[in-house]
Amino acid sequence: MQIAVTFRHMESSDPVRSYVEEKLARVKKYIEEPIDAQVVLSVQKIVHRAEVTMVAKGLTMKSVEETSDMYAAIDLMVDKIERQLKRYKEKLKKHKSQSSGQRNVEKSVIAAPSVDEGSQEPEIIRSHSFSVKPMSVEEAVMQMDLLDKDFLVFTDDRSEEMNVVYRRKDGNYGLIVPQGS
Description:
about 180 residues, alpha+beta
């Protein structure tokens, strides 16, 4: 497991770094290697914040916790990521994907003024490519929840079509499925 710990607005501390590594070692039993974990520990006034983003074999999870004690924030963060992984592992047992082909998708963020002003070419301010693994709709909703996102682009494991699942304002989920021409 690769763990990168970043300290923001606080002194770098080997005991805290060791504590994070020791606690995150607990999650190895839930997912296969290789695991890449990015941990950011920060302090603002009296709030201690622990944030982790873990990537492992097509799965990305995020957990953020804030308390008045850094060690307590780390414990809560690891507990939350462990609960997410347990839930993921249980659902994965129920929904085994037969297809293994992945697609690549590119996400772009376009500057609002370039669209509002009616210019010919919208200004792209950020672009990101990522692979989209085939999964069931239930898996996609679970992945979206783990990432704490409002939508997720995925390949349906049955139809092999690109779909989008999204969180509605009423708390339910929506699914966008392309129609053939």
